[in-house]
Amino acid sequence: MEHADHILVVDDDREIRQMVADYLRKNGLRASEAADGREMRAILDTHAIDLIVMDLMMPGEDGLTLTRNLRAGKHRAIPVVMLTAREDQTDRIIGLEMGADDYVTKPFAARELLARIKAVIRRTRMLPPNLQVTEAVQMLAFGRWRLDTVARHLLDPDDTVVALSGAEFRLLRVFLDHPNRVLSRDQLLNLTQGRDAELFDRSIDLLVSRLRQRLQDDAREQSYIKTVRSEGYVFSAPVTIVGENG
Fold it and tell me: What is the tally of structural domains in the chain?
């Protein structure tokens, strides 16, 4: 029997939460419900969840906060579809920057949400097995830099903090997870942003340029991120987990 994907619906609005969960169940999926971050974490600790549908506007910990924290923890690989009542494109971009894989604006058609959920799961599973993310770690070291994967910022040899945007952090984390491997722009797009080609199809090159500036990586020397003509990029510096091997 085919495995039914398990979706976690996180929304403080009980009617919307139940409506979405019931619709998913009627369409062959399993669904669990959480009204807030506490309930979400409890379910994540006891169930294997394939995707989270996350409401943006919730009292206390909102969807952006929960998604950002999710990306820094042990469940960081679970895809997230954000529900938002806002139509401002800025809010949608912020959601994607924080780690959401897709978004649906309220009011929405349940059929559209189902289609987005299936598309995100399908896209996630299309990634080659050797491009799966590693488990969350505290600190990754490369060259003269260290990346704090919990605080999501860079540290130079003097322990000076270099803040990263959400997109910069995710791109660097992808490179550190897959060093010495050529990654195409499509793979980087899927691993960092996940959707909306109209927003991001030309942004990978810009994002790489921004990250090189953060790393003080000369575009001509390319000590860390090397351009592979017609193929993509490769992170060429050795990466170690701080604390390993003594």
Answer: 2
